[in-house]
Amino acid sequence: MSLKRETVLWSAPPHTIAKISILQSYLSRWFEIFGRTHPGKSLWYIDGFAGPGEYTNSPTGSPVAAIASASAALQNVGAKWWAGDIQCVFIEQDANTFLHLQNKLNSLDENPKIQKHLFNSSCEDGLDSLHRQKQNPFSPPAPLFAFIDPFGVKGIPFRIVKDLLSRDKTEILINFDSDGIGRIFKAEEAANCESNLNEIFGDDSWKVALKKDSAFHELILQALDLYKRKLRALPGVKYVFAFEMRSTKDNPDYHLVFASQHFLGLEKMKEAMKAIDKNGTYSFSDAHIGQESLFKFNDPESHGDRLFKQFNGKTVKYDEVRDYALNESPFGNPKTMLKYLEEKGMIQAKSRDPKRRKGTFNEDNLEYIMFLQGS
To answer: What is the model's pTM?
Structure first.
């Protein structure tokens, strides 16, 4: 949903607080993993729409969450930190908001291993400026996580996303304003539809993907489905997952879209989602066309049946099943779904371990999984 910024600070709704909690939880994992495994490499975080750094009802906006995650990771890893410094880039266009952000970041405890780069500009211009810096994450490529959270539907052309994801070890979390995109599509030229949607999707593929006679909720899922397919079409980007943030069960707000080149990234992102306390003031949806079900991290049955339909009659390697589970289910791996299917006699697993117990799936020992035809 597109909003107009009225003041420097505003009250964050519950789903915004949840979003920042997810970001902070995930970044802690991300910094720790790369900090242990990339000797001498700087780790980069980019916040493309940084905001003021806090809200009237919360001291922790996304920039503060990123700094806190970086500090926690450095402390937790300690002497085993092999990477270089953590470079945090904050881009904010509004002058008054940018000034508040500067003051907020200056009030935080300094850590010499956390370097801050601030740009008072649009996201696109800020990234261009970063490209021109002698120290940047693009040349040579460095581990990079980008949080792209525009205040409304505009501001993140697909060419920017494509450029960021063109490098190895880059991940992106995007606030995809599917509601706003649906409204632009319905308004047609009154909302400069063609120009705006061409920019968001990178071409005019939306003209075929979005159906004028669709109900509005169906339309926004069509937009999301197209965006996910565009991301997966980028070289190396195999893991794309979207989840809908809702203020209530029947009131969708927006989708968060995560894209990565490595399965471990999506595993850890789902761990971060699962760790957030669900207090009833917001919820996740599985964001599938034709599916209204909310996330259930402890319900393998319904998703297990969908997994079986995907591979019915096929014999596949564990990695293929894992990738499907990551991209198309709430789970970080397929094991609970496979256990359910094996108990139902719908699959057979071939393992190198002669002592394997039914319902256990050690990926290092699994040779293949057979999905029995017509079960």
So the answer is: 0.91
